[in-house]
Amino acid sequence: MSTQEKVNINKLPTGVPGLDEIVGGGLPEFSFNIIAGAPGSGKTTLAHQFVFANATVERPALYFTVLGESTIKMLRYQQQYTFFDSSKLPDSIRFINLSQIVLEKDLGAVLEEITKEVEKTNPAVVVVDSFRTMVRKQESSMDLQSFIQRLALFLASWQATTFLIGEYAEEELRDNPIFTVADGLFWMRQTAERNSIVRKLQVIKLRGQNSVPGLHTFRITDAGVQAFSRTFGLTARKRNPPNDRRLSFGIAELDKMHGGGVREGDSVLITGASGTGKSVLATQFIAEGISHGESGIVAVFEERPEAYAERAASLGLDLETPLKDGKLAILYLRPLDLSVDETMQSILDAVQKIGAKRLVIDSLAGFEMALSPGFRADFRESLYRMIFALTGIGVTILSTVEVEESFTEFPFSTYSISFLADDIIRLRYVSIDGQLRKIMVVIKMRGGNHAKDIREYEITSKGMVILGKRLTEFQGLISGIPVYSNRSDRKEDPAHEPEIGNK
């Protein structure tokens, strides 16, 4: 068959936010699909979202219920979701209860009833929920495998997109021949991880589609099922080519140390102990961008947006105005069963909404604590995917991470993620003449040369201020306990204490 003769497969919207991206742009029309999983995993809700998204008067949907909850009871709960549209009942969506036929007759009679209703209605969508309960009739003239094969052939001839919903345990996936009949197999699971519930969706097979492999997080809210792709919805986006444009930190001396500022699209890691000014530097970075017309996003995990804006005001930085004008979004992400994928979706939504070019994550430690235990195990891998995706579309990321101060080591991060950063700025305390002072050094700047100077800085009412020139009269500064280079020639007199900021 030549390229010109290939059949064009129409793709239908799933009605589930994020799922179209996972299945490769939509569900193939006329496909025969199985939604499987344990009770309570969200199978029925997912099927309802597809039905309500696609059913019309001209192309109606038939929803068969079998030995599960009654239609009235099911609709009572499903209408609580925002996707539920009562105006589509019964002309666009018709619910048919087959429980009496299943109880009194065999699978052949069930197939006959489904066939009769399909021929009468000519539906575009057919759902059987739950098909597995029909196997309880031991005296059936046909087994479930034969029933599904005949049903699939019949519905394919009527060009209906079909969903069979069944409750299965994961160990049944390997050996059950029923799954070979389906064009698409969706597996939904929920697991308890300590005190958190984690829901995962896997597209095990989907004929004719380039679906995204792996496990994808999903959540059930008042809007129904929402899926979060492992690729963060960025697979189809064109990556921005690298450029040499430099962005200011809002601190002139730090820009000079970076050869003019941070390169646009870089990932910057600010690391240091508590109180060294990581959040202050991050706030100045965002405020500087806003002052030049660049929208920004701050994802906070350890304080509420109001407190963040108030702290910025104490530094003379106005974040309230850009918040009101839509130039700034402060995302407070603090549920204790959060996933990286959900975080990413919130950030992406904000990026698209305000056209953000700068992102602050404050902090990675708070980010990790907000994740459910299972996601913490994959924290580094998830950060890699997130940073790669965002920087690829031109967003410059500044992340803060707290390290435990040591006076025998000079660590950059507790997560072994320094390889993920294009730029690393290390802040630390030093003990000099009975005072605890602060120094900074640019450890790394990928794709360019940076200053090697160790500089002292202070946190003032105007934010972070770098003092004087580099510190040349000390040895062992990065140890935190430096000594004067010519200490033996100096008098132990407070009057001879050096004015570090003026050197």
| Spatial gap, N to C terminus | 79 Å
Q: What percent strand?
A: 25-35%
Q: C-alpha Rg, in Å?
A: 30 Å
Given as residue ranges, the uncertain stretches (5+ residues, pLDDT < 50) are: 488-503
Strand order of the largest sheet: 5-4-6-7-3-8-9-10-11
Question: Strand tally, please?
Answer: 24
**Helicity level:** 25-40%
Helices, by number, come to 14
Note the main sheet.
9 strands, mixed
Protein structure class: alpha/beta
- Shape category: elongated
Q: What is the average per-residue confidence, as pLDDT, rounded to a whole number?
A: 85
Can you characterise this structure?
With 503 residues, the protein is α/β, with parallel strands linked by helices. The chain has helices at residues 19-23, 43-54, 71-78, 99-104, 107-121, 144-157, 252-257, 278-291, 305-314, 320-325, 340-354, 364-370, 373-376, 379-392, and strands at residues 11-12, 27-28, 32-37, 61-65, 93-97, 125-129, 161-167, 184-193, 196-206, 215-221, 224-228, 246-247, 262-263, 267-272, 296-300, 328-332, 358-362, 396-402, 423-432, 435-445, 455-460, 463-467, 474-475, 483-484. A nine-stranded mixed beta sheet has the order 5-4-6-7-3-8-9-10-11, sandwiched between helices. The chain has a nine-stranded mixed beta sheet with strand order 16-15-17-18-14-19-20-21-22, with helices on both faces. A two-stranded antiparallel ribbon has the order 1-2. The chain is elongated. Mean pLDDT is 85; it is low at 488-503.
